[in-house]
From TrEMBL:
<dbReference type="InterPro" id="IPR010131">
    <property type="entry name" value="MdtP/NodT-like"/>
</dbReference>
<protein>
    <submittedName>
        <fullName>Outer membrane protein, cobalt-zinc-cadmium efflux system</fullName>
    </submittedName>
</protein>
<feature type="coiled-coil region">
    <location>
        <begin position="187"/>
        <end position="214"/>
    </location>
</feature>
<keyword id="KW-0175">Coiled coil</keyword>
<keyword id="KW-0732">Signal</keyword>
<dbReference type="GO" id="GO:0015562">
    <property type="term" value="F:efflux transmembrane transporter activity"/>
</dbReference>
<feature type="signal peptide">
    <location>
        <begin position="1"/>
        <end position="34"/>
    </location>
</feature>
Length: 427
């Protein structure tokens, strides 16, 4: 009975090994119609179909409308006055009333209209710069999704390799158990590890499918594309070229807008005169007369002094923010480059030292188990294989972190800024 159970267990393990091997081959086969998707392809698709483009266009239209409104001068006024149409004594008859119809116009002085238009145009520049930052942020999120998809794809062969190693060793352990070289629990432990590895492979494939779908959702597509694994394996550390980022460009536009607002506030120191002309009708005698008048505000400098001080203070604050932002961006770029250098150095050491040593240990134990010797046990193989799998997974995670840091670096340096022209014209 004991021998029959062992034989059944061995046959079951062999059948499962063949079945899982076939499943691995079938899953590894890519459909012939799937095409490789590069980062430029993904960003280009988003650049022509992102709904954020419509929102940015609406913001620019609103800012352009402010220019039209700034060009409007004070509206003329038409009015009428009725005097003495009711009263007591000699003013009670309606024929003693006086009626005046008048027309009034205000003349703007001190360049108010030009200053308003200039401030509105400066606001348009601010909105445009802010739109560029929003688009760059979205492109960075697309690039991060692309990196996550690559990382998910890279995790699949790690899980598949571990499963293949465990399945080969499971067959060897079954032979050793049937030959009374290892105890029965070793076969059960091998079987458990294989089942866990099969689950890990399924999860890795599902994670990759979800990551591709998340990436394709940015342009409303499907995940029927392939990703070049060689792009994920590249980890060259390059220093990006210098230059102001899009964030500094926003502050520059805000500084220009603040300067325009200072000029607009200064125009408030100049009074705007108004003139009035009209006709007066006298009820008694039915006579007409022409009336002319005018007015000019007093104390305008004192009344607008607070607005000028506030606008000048806002301008100084933005100038200080520009200096601070340049320093912070430069510091963050240096930090990102340094971190990527550390990660690249660790990956190189894993490739040169850890993986070869761990692979040799697994191979030696596998050979020993296959020869049927007693120098090694399944527990030793499990520990060695776990160390190898962890090293491979660690390498994938380091590459993922390396490329995600590159996403932030590309965002700060404006690497994908040339795509903004396409996005800004796709309205």
């Amino acid at each position: 009975m004991y021998s029959i159970s062992r034989a059944r267990f061995g046959a079951h393990a062999i059948r499962r090994a063949l079945l899982c091997g076939g499943v691995l081959l079938a899953a590894a086969a890519q459909p012939v119609w799937a095409q490789n998707l590069s980062l430029d392809d993904a960003l280009s698709r988003v650049a022509t179909s992102d709904p954020a483009i419509v929102a940015n266009a609406a913001r620019l239209e609103a800012a352009d409308a402010a220019i039209l409104q700034a060009d409007v001068r004070p509206r003329d006024v038409v009015g009428a006055d009725f005097e003495d149409f009711a009263g007591t004594g000699p003013y009670s008859p309606l024929n003693r009333s006086q009626t005046t119809g008048w027309y009034e116009r205000t003349w703007e002085r001190g360049g108010k209209r030009e200053a308003r238009i200039g401030a509105a145009r400066a606001d348009v520049a601010v909105v445009g710069a802010q739109n560029r930052v929003r688009l760059l942020d979205r492109l960075a999120r697309v690039q991060a999704a692309w990196v996550e998809a690559l990382a998910a794809e890279a995790a699949i062969p790690v899980a598949e390799t571990r499963l293949a190693d465990l399945k080969r060793v499971e067959l060897d352990v079954v032979k050793r158990v049937t030959g009374a070289l290892d105890p029965w629990f070793a076969a059960e432990r091998a079987r458990t590890n294989v089942a866990q590895a099969e689950i890990a492979v399924e999860q890795a494939r599902e994670n990759a499918r979800i990551a591709r779908a998340n990436l394709a959702a940015w342009w409303g597509g499907t995940g029927d594309f392939k990703l070049d694994p060689a792009l994920f394996q590249s980890f060259e550390v390059t220093v990006p070229p210098g230059g102001d980022s899009a964030d500094v460009a926003v502050l520059d536009a805000e500084r220009a807008a603040a300067e325009a607002k200072v000029k607009l506030a200064e125009t408030g120191n100049v009074a705007d005169p108004s003139g009035r002309v009209g006709f007066r009708h006298f009820g008694e005698g039915n006579d007409f007369a022409v009336m002319v008048g005018g007015s000019i505000p007093l104390g305008t400098k004192a009344a607008n002094r607070g607005n000028i001080v506030r606008a000048e203070a806002e301008q100084r604050a933005i100038e200080a923010d520009i200096a601070v932002t340049r320093v912070e961006i430069g510091r963050e770029i240096d930090r990102l480059v340094a971190e990527r250098g550390l990660i690249a150095a660790e990956i190189k050491r894993i490739d040169a030292e850890v993986l070869p040593s761990a692979s040799r240990a697994v191979r030696l134990i596998q050979d020993g188990l296959a020869r049927g010797g007693t120098a090694f046990t399944f527990l030793e193989f499990s520990q060695a294989q776990t160390a190898l799998s962890e090293a491979r997974s660690r390498r994938v995670e380091l590459l993922r972190r390396f490329h995600l840091l590159g996403v932030r670096l590309d965002r700060l340096t404006g690497r994908h800024a040339p795509l903004l022209a396409t996005m800004e014209t796709a309205r």
